[in-house]
Every structure is written in C-alpha cells, then in structure tokens.
Amino acid sequence: MLPIILAGALMVGLIVGLVLLQQSRWYQHRQLFSQLCRVHRLDRRSRRLLRQLESQLRLPFPAWVFVDPRCLAAARKLADIPPGQLLLLQTKLFGSQPAQPSPAHSPETPAVQ
Amino acid sequence: MSGGLEATFQYLTRADNPAAVELLEAALDCPYGPVRELALSALLAKPNRAIHRRLFDRLEQLDSAGKAILAKRPDRLVGVVTEIFLQVHRQTAHADGNASSKKQPSGYPPGKPSDAKGTPDKKLQQDFHRACEVVREFTLYEAAPSLIQAVEGAPEGLAEVGASTLLELTKALYTELAAGPHATKDLKTLRSRLTETLQAAAGAYVRHQRREILEAFLILAKPQDVVLRRILHDRRDSAHEPIVRLLSESTEGGVIRLLLSFLEDPQAPQAALEVFARRCDARFVQIWAHQAGYPPPDAWKEALGRLRRIAWAQPGHPLWGELDGPAQAGCVGILLASKMDRCRVLEVLEFVLEHGQPEGRRTAAAALAQLAGPKADMLVVRLLQDKDPYVQAEAIRQVRRRNIPDALSLLVQLADSSEPIVRQALQEALPEFTCKNFLRTFDQLPEELLQTAGYLVRKIDFDAPATLTAEMQSLSPLRRRRAVEAASAMGAVPELEAQIALLLQDEDHRVRIAAARALADSRSQPTWQALRDALFDRSLVVRDEAEKSLRKITASLSGQTEPAPSAVPSDDAAPPVYSQEP
C-alpha cells in the first residue's frame, strides 16, 4: 500500500512541479525560443548555435537573438562559430542586408551585455 | 524590411506567451528603427490595457516614426487616458461628496463653485497633464466625454488644462466636420455624443464655471438644442450671461455658425437676436453679410424683421471701412430687411453711396428703390450723373417711377452714353422709345420731331436694326416704305444700306423712291452702283431721286478736304452724275 501512496504522491508532486515550471518566467522564455525556432524552421544545428550565442553573449532573453541583428554580428568575433552557418542564420532571420542602426536612437546594447 | 524579421514579429503579435510581451517591450529600445517600429505595432495590436498603459508611460521616448504608428491606433490610447480622466473624476467627486456632506451641508450658496475639491495625488496630476497632451497631440475625440467629467470636478490647475484641451479638441472636431459634407458617420455620431455630454456640462455651469466648456458646447450645438434654448430664454440661469457673452465675442467658426443659424428660425430667442444687434466685429459682420447677400434669403426675413437696431448701421461707422464690397452689399440687404427706421436706413445708404466699395454702392443704389420720399428722390437724381455706370443704371430705372419732374428730359440727356448697361436701363425706363413704337406712330409724327425721336430710338433700342430689316422684308409695300423712311430718320442708313439697296429693285415704285432718297446717306461703292442702276428705272421719279442722291454723294465727297481712299471715286467705281436722263 505504502509504495502505491508514495508513487501517487510522487505523481502529484511531478504534476504540480510541471505546472509551476510552465508558469515560470524561465520556462516561458524557453518556450518562446522554441516556438520562434519552429516559425523559422531552424534545424537542430542552428538551434544549438543560437543557444550557444545566448550563453556566450549573455543575452537578456533566449529569443532576443531573433529581434536584434547585432547578436549575429557580434557572434562573428567568437572563435568557435562557423561563419557559413552564421551567414545562413543571418539571411533566415534578418534577410541578406545587415540592418543599420537608426542614428536618432541612443540604445543600450542588450545583445552584448 | 526582411521577411524573417516580419515573420518573427507576426508570431510575437499572435503569441499568448507573456514572454513575447516582455521581449517586445525590450525591443522598443533596440537601436534599429524597423525593429522598434515592428515591436510597437505588435504591442499596439495586443488588446491589453496594461500594455497600452506602459506605452503611454514611455510616450516621450518615442520618435516621430513611433508616434506615426501610434496615431494609426488612437483607440489604444483612448482607453488609457479615459481611465486617467475617470480616476481624477472619481477622486474629486468622492472628495466633493465628502466635503459637501461634511463641510457644506445646506447653506452653501449655489452660485459659488466648491473650493473644497479633492486634489488628486501628484502622480495622478502628472498623468492628467500628460493625458491632456496626448489628447491634443493625437486628437482623441473619444476621450472628450470623460475629460468633461474630470474637468467638472477637478481643482483649478487641472480644470484649466483640461478645459482648454477640451476646447481645442472641439475646435478640431468642428474643423473636420466643416471640412466637407462628407464627414464620416463616426464623426457625426461622435458629435452627437459629445454634444449630449456638453449639454449636461453646460447645464451644470454653476458647479464648474468653466467658460471653455460653454464655448465648446456652442461650437457643436445646433440652434434647436433644448438646453441652449432654455439657457437663452431664462435670463436668471447662471449660464445665460456667459453664453450670451460668448455669442457676442467668440470668433470661432462654430459659434458664428450657430448664431447665424438662429436667423433661419422665426422663433429665435430674443437674447440671440440682441447679439446680432450688438456685434460690430469685422469677422462676424463679414461672414453674416456674405451669407445674407442681396436680397437676404427668404428664410432669414422673419428673424431680420425683428431687428430694430443694429450697432454698425450708422453713417461713418468704422466697420464699413473694414468690409469688402460684397459684404457691404450684404449689409445693405440686412438693413433693408430689418425693422430699422427707414430715415436712418436712408442715411446709411447715402453714406455707402458716398464712401462705399463699388459692389456696396451699386447695391445701395438698387436698394433706394425701396425707399420713398423727397430725400431719396434727390439722391436718385444725383446718381444719374454718377461715375459708375451700374449706379447710373440703377438710378435710371427709378427716375420715372418716382414721378420726378422733368424725368424724361433727364433720361434723354443720358441717351448718348456709350455704356451698354446704361443704355439697357434706358430701354427699360423708356419703353415707348422702341423701334416698333416709332414705326407705328411714324406717319403721325410731325416732320420736325422725326429726326429727334428717330435718334433717341436708335440710341435706346438695341434691336432697331433687326426690326427695320424685318420690316423691309414684309409683304406690305407700305411697311417696307415706312421702314426705309424710319431708317433714314433714325440715321441708320449706313448700317442698313445693303438691305435698302435691295429695295431699289422693289416692285412698288414708292418703295424704290424712298430707297433711292434714303441712299443719299450711303457710303459704299456697291450701293453707289445700285443707285447708278436706278438711273435706268422705269419710273421717272425713281430716276430723279437716284440722281439727286448721287449728286448729294458727289457733293459730300468733293466737300471733304482729304477724302478717305475707299470713298474717292475712281474711274470705274465712282458714282457717275448724269446731267440728263440716259
């Protein structure tokens, strides 16, 4: 009987934990990252590269790499990133022309924090 | 714009994930313009008041492109500013309620605004100021009803800003409505909604005492507005005096429109008509007079007929100098339609005739027709010599109707005028001096009067040549002969010599005689040739007359000191003078 109760409690604990996890900010950002990867039909290699960029460039959000073209520009300076794949990602996410910063704006630089 | 970036933001717009909002808000600070703009558009697309409120808070950081995007979705800001206005209203109303229940029980004088209004906290005051700026910048008409509510109870500083914002907003709405007849249904609905709120606010003037609210009400109100009419009829109403003052002083297009539309109403409130009697500002009178024209519209006549005095209706009033010609003409129309003393009207007309613009003078001259009496008669006689032919023409039309002594000779003196308008007027004033009448009485007229009468007819009746030509082609030989003789008496032979020359071949010898005699005044070689042919006419009398005419022509040509080349008889063209019959 006791093992069944323990198993049940474990199950409930797991479900509660899962629900709490889904409501967490961390999970929501991870989920958004995955959803955007799906939107752009990125393969596993590209996803891995974007995650690598997130950790190396210490981006504020995992999905930030999808909205700020500076992230990919900054990645060119990193040693272990294949330039061919970067170019491919650049084209997929932002088009072939690298965007020019608007001179009117004085930005912080969240992508290279 | 790259397709990849667009796809990202399209997804972020749709996404329910709260992380998407966080990402978009962070993207508003991105240095890349397109990213900022896409982020802003995506955030505005989300129907979440909290997001819009955060956008409102960072409005000052938006560049012009961002503001342009925001201007496309003003509804997103309306919700935010409305919330702020209602919050101010709730706080002040709550405080008012407390204040009135605790501090001012029953003996509080109704005419005095409450000075115990609740003051919203500093943050809310700042928000209120910013909300007013946003309302002005993005012309958020939908926020006006809540703004009125806020202004009604707000303390002085806030109420002043709010009221001026409201007035500005109303003016903008009026301008849009007045821009064309194609105002959208939304704008019209908005107008009626706003007018309803302003009605209530105008009715509660005693509470807020904001003149701007009343002016905003007047800009949008219609003349049938029940509240407006009640206030205008009830002189004891607290809003009566400020509304009348606004109607008397405001130069806003909407207020002037409202005032003028009272003229279409025979039951217009007396207070509104008194404003017409008082206002002397050039802008108002100019608009009024332009709309009135001459004569004023029939729909205005009843209301204008209730005006017993008009402030600017005085000779030498400085306003006349500020009005253009058509406005002066309109003013003359207004004066005539009013119930003013006619002597006074005549004095003003005399002044306009003396110092007015051409259009004003012409209308004043025409308006004299409606005024009788010796003074008006004298004025009309004086105008017969006016330098403006249009004024002269108006006077000419009136002279005979006024039974002025010697009117006929006064008119005959003008027959030499070269101005078509004067001759046209003479034709109307002297209907008996027509060619048809002249032909009818031709045989009865004494010989000595024929030339004078004929000369006058020729000057006055423009159609005389056509009438004579038609007469010369009539079946009756008597009428053909009379037409030729009349042409001769009128001195119209040079004009009609081709037609008369044809009559030298007429079957009736008396017509041929008259034609041969009349052609003594001819001046062209074909006619002379026709006269030479007439020397071979079967009738002796015709031949005689033709010869006499040819002699006369020769004598007149040889009498010229330096004859015109065309008139010099050449060998084959000169009319030969025969001393004897061929």
Helix content of chain B: 55-70%
Q: Give the CA-based shape of chain B.
A: elongated
Number of helices of chain A: 6
Main beta-sheet annotation of chain B? none
What is the radius of gyration of chain A?
19 Å
Structural class of chain B: mainly alpha
Oligomer: heterodimer
| Beta-strand content estimate of chain B | under 5%
Number of strands of chain A: 0
Category by helix and strand content of chain A: mainly alpha
Amino-to-carboxy terminus distance of chain A: 55 Å
Outline the structure in words.
The complex is a heterodimer of chains A (113) and B (582). With 113 residues, chain A is mostly helical. Chain A has one domain. The longest helix of chain B has 29 residues. The radius of gyration of chain B is 42 Å and the shape is elongated. The C terminus of chain B is likely disordered. The interface between A and B is medium-sized, with 36 and 28 residues.
